[in-house]
Every structure is written in C-alpha cells, then in structure tokens.
Amino acid sequence: MNDTTRKFDTLLIANRGEIACRVMRTARRLGIKTVAVYSDADQNARHVREADEAVRLGPAPARESYLNIEAVIEAARRSGSGAVHPGYGFLSENGRFVEALEAAGITFIGPPASAIAAMGDKAAAKSRMAEAGVPLVPGYHGDDQSDGVLREQANRIGYPVMLKASAGGGGKGMRIVEREADFQAALESCRRESRASFGDDRMLIEKYLVRPRHVEVQVFCDRFGAGVYLFERDCSVQRRHQKVLEEAPAPHMTEELRAAMGEAAVRAAKEIGYVGAGTVEFLLDTDGAFYFMEMNTRLQVEHPVTEMVTGLDLVEWQLKVAMNEPLPCTQGELTLNGHSFEARLYAEDPANEFLPATGTLTRFALDLDGAGLVAERVRLDSGVEAGDAVSMHYDPMLAKLITHGSDRDAALATLNRALAALDVQGVVTNRAFLQRLAGHPAFKAAKLDTGFIERHHETLFAEPAPPLDAYARAALVALETLSKNVAQAASPWARADGFRLNAPHRVRIALADEREGSEAVVVDATRRLAQTGWTLRVHNACFEGSLASLTGDAVAITLDGHRRRYQAQLDGDTLVLAEPKGETRLRWQRLDALNHAGREAEASFTAPMHGTVVALLVEPGAPVEKGTPLMVMEAMKMEHTLSAPVDGIVEQFRFAAGDSVVQGDVLLAFTPAEQEAAP
Fold first, then answer.
1. How far apart are CA 384 and CA 364, in angstroms?
2. Residue 636: which domain range?
3. 3 lies in a domain?
4. Which of 593, 621, 653 is the last residue of a domain?
5. Annotated catalytic sites, by residue?
6. Distance from the Cα of residue 371 to its chain's centroid
7. pLDDT in tens, 582-624
8. What is the CATH number of the domain that holds 170?
9. Which residues pair with 33 in a beta bridge?
10. Which of residues 159, 175, 207 is at a domain's end?
11. Hey, how many other C-beta atoms are within 10 angstroms of the C-beta on 156?
C-alpha cells in the first residue's frame, strides 16, 4: 500500500446487525455518509433503516449476499463509496476481498491482505510467532493432514487436546478431545463445520490447558511503523468456545505482566506488517505463563469495554489510520480509567444446549430511568428494535450490554441492574442466564477460567421453582386479562371469567413454570360480593391480592399488603412479570389439558430450530441406547446433535442429509424400548 493521503466521504459497511449500526454512529459523527448492504432477509433490518442509503446484495444465504465479494464491490461502486468497513465476521478477514477492493481503488478499513493471510492460517501464524519470540502452546500445525498423522500428534502432545480449524475462528470447527477413542468422531465433525464455515478443513492441534484464562490484548498500528497496545481484556467466560462475558482490564493483572503481554502483542503485529485494529489472544495459565493463541485481524465484538476504560473511539481510530493519519496517541499517553463489562445478548436457549432461537421481538427496551442508572455508565450496542424478526440465517447475537464503573465491583453492580432493566420479549434469549452468571459468587470473586460455565453448570442452569407467591401474582395478571376480555364481549353470556349472580366470583387458573417436566399449579381465585381484591389459594398457602394498571405494561401488584411494581405482559401463552430482581415466566394452561403436554412432548422428535440436516448417524430399524447420537443438524453456522432420550428403535428418518427443516418439524419416528416390548 502507498503512503498517499486517502480521504473519503462515503463509507460502505459490509456487514449487518449491531456492528453495522455501531460503525454508522461514528461515521455520522465524523460527517461521513454511510451505505448499508442487505440480503432479502434483512431488507427491513435496523442497519438498513439507519443508513443514509442501502444496496441489496442478494438472497438470504450469506454466501449469496454478505459473502459475495463481487456484489459488495459493485454496491460500493454504485453508491460512490470510497471505503469499506467490514465489521467482524463475513468478509472481515478475507484477503481476496481486500485485494479486490484495492484493485477497484476502494480503501479497506483494516490491515493489508498479507497480514490477514499471515494470521488467517493459524498453523503458519504459529510458526511466524515462534520466530518473533512470542510464546506458543505445545501443539501441531503441520502440512500433513492425514488422519493417522493427526492422531499420532494428538497422542504425542497428550490428552486432553484441542482440535481447531486452521482457517477458522469464532468457536467454529473446534472441539476438546478428552481421549483417543473420541478423536476420529471429533475430527470428522470439526472438518465438516470448518468446510461449511470457511471452505477449508485443515486442522491444527494444541495441548488443552485445563484451567487457563483467555486474555487478549488490543493492538493498533499505523502505516508509519508505530504500534501501541490499548491494554487487555479478560474473555474467559465462554460457551462452545464463544465469549459470553468480557471485561477490561483483566482481574489480578500486575503491571509487569500487562507490559509483557502488551509488548509481545505489538511484536506479533509488527512481525506481519500489521495496520489498523487487531487483537492478539493469549492463554494465561495459573502459573502466570502466557501463550499465543491467535490474532484476530479485525475489530473485536468486545471492543466497547476497551473504549469504556480508555475513553477512545476505536472505529474513529480505524478510519483515521485508513486515511493515512498517524496514531492519535503514543503508548505513554494511554491510561486506564475504571473497569468495564460486556454481556452478549443472544437469541438462544441456554437450557437447551444454547440452541439458536428465531421469532419476532415483541419488546426490546432498556429502562435506565426505572433502574436508576446513569446513561454514561451503560451502553447498549444493538442491531434490532421491537418488531424486528430474528432470522435463522445469521449469528444469533442481538445486542451487547456494556457497563462502566470506578472499579470492578461498581461496574459489575451496574451490569446486574442493567440486565434486570433490559426488557426483551417475543424470542427466547440468554438474558436470565446472563443475570445468573453475573451474579454468581465465583464470578464476583473473579475466579475465572475458560471452563467456568461447565464447572458451575449445576448452579448456573438449575433454575429454582418459582415461589408460591409468584403464582399468585401471575394469576392476578391473568385475571386482569380475563376482565379485559369480558369488557370487550358483546354479550354477557360470552363471559368465561367465573362470574356468578349473587355468589362469590370464582376462577381457577393453571400455571406452569418453564422447567422441563414441571407440572401445572392451579390457583383458586375468589372475590366475594362488594370486594375489589381477590383471595388466592396456591396449594396450602392463601394470599390477599389486587392489581392496578399503570402506564404501558406497568402494573402495581399488592399481595398481603406488600405493593410492588412490575412490567407485565402475555407473550403467547406465557405470562411474564419483570422487575429489577429478574423476571418470572409462567405458562397459562387450559385446565382440561394439564395431563397431556408431557406425553405429547415425548411422542415425537421435533427440530429445535430452523436449519439443515447434516448427517444421519444410525440406520432405520436399528436399536439404540439412551444418549446415542441420531442426527446432526446445522443452524447459524454451528452443529447440533440430537440424541436418543431413552433406549429404543429409530423406525424412520423423515429428512435426508442436506434437507432444510423448520423449527417444529418432526424429524424421525422413534419407538421407546418399553413400548416395543409391550405385548
């Protein structure tokens, strides 16, 4: 690349969702016109609505739209864009894309193609890092990719090992292998996932450190040879090797270790002639030793926590460096201020192995005033609004909630309050799981490592049964809903709310919590003549309660003289009561259907999400044991395996490998062993 000035006044963002919206905010502040691109699935998406103009790329599948290099470059030409910001994911680390932009005379907001190539191949990158004196985890990243050699290398390194896609990232094409017997199946699964995500199935193997922390360093380099590190982030709390909670600075970090890691990161960047924003990721062992893992040659999802503790706008730095300006600061001018957390809000079901979820967001709002939070301490980076659809085609991340405080305790307290104030309905999300995670005693004590979620699985995933008074409060909301229906009825004979002339008004309401196998609880509600409140019997408990509607969805519920404010709504057949401490979700069921839901759920195998069938793992008619993998599905670039819930026989697969399925489709016919043996 030459050193001539590259000014531009129009920027195309070759991405979607929250990162596209976030880049637009900085561009607008700098007076740069923004251009969005979109697929057919995103034609009404928020990033399209917020851009100055937008250009269609193609159909919904990413390979036909966001990954279509020719279509993106044509969109830049049509819109007169002088530069393209890739965001993260999609084409952000595609060297061929960078070269095509250069050939078209369009500036790429990122490093040169040579730097992307150097770090994009993880095996080659490790060799270069070894030459630069950057410490490495013991492993294998050679050219011989035969099954036998890979198995031999895994045995040499010693189990457990980590299989990783050489061209990959984002947790795709990665598996921990605990023993040799599991190696081949893990290898085949990683290769399939890597081919689907990156078009490349080469693997590397690393020694799996049992309890390391994932600490990464933000680096920035300009075109004049200067490089700095903007301190570190701890990203240890992960699921499926993808980050969930991040923070800056890393807890328990000494100034000496910070400097050593930062200098190693800058050395790694300069080794490959890096320009722009990049992140060098390390594994930090319990003895204080750190090892190079990989370098992400782009802006990271978690960059906002670095912005919060440095007071800098990293996208602004990216744009200035791309315009051939020098770095705005030297290393000595950079300072840390306080502490910051980021929580990633995903459309996924933590209780169901984090399977992605789809649907329409009926509510999406952050009530800072109601939670008593200061806007300067809380930031919500989002690519969605209420009314938006969540598609099966792309990553399930909806938003990032970022908080800041004078120290770690203050920032974490703000995060917990902000999570409680985040109102998201219509799509299953991990919000409640994030609350349990951020409130966990071990997390508060900063006892972190990459196995945190697995090690604390029992406490993080075991949702306690709602207390009896929660059923009473939900029943009051249900009674209010029934009253509204009565008010809208054309005839008094249409009433179904238990009204009786000259007799106590009595209604029975069945409510069930969302834990698997939970039975419904019947609330017996009675209101006597001339009384405004209700007497509510839940099992052996008795409550006196009333409800008053406030503005919007807000209600005031009084139970035995204790008045509390909630956000209440009916989401399908689920009653939702939200307050700063969290939310209660109870399904409102018909009394005559109480004994059928469990048996119906067991009677069929249904697709847990929209996706594609990847592989059928057993032959029809074959007897299988409980836990046997039966079918592999792929959705949102991740594989999901359906297993036998009990011993039995797979009678028939109703879809073949390669078929698309819709959430709720019955995938196979299965006969439990008990039924098979019955006379």
1. 8
2. 604-677
3. no
4. 593
5. 298
6. 24
7. 678 898 886 654 444 334 333 347 776 778 898 999 999 989 9
8. 3.30.1490.20
9. 10
10. 207
11. 11
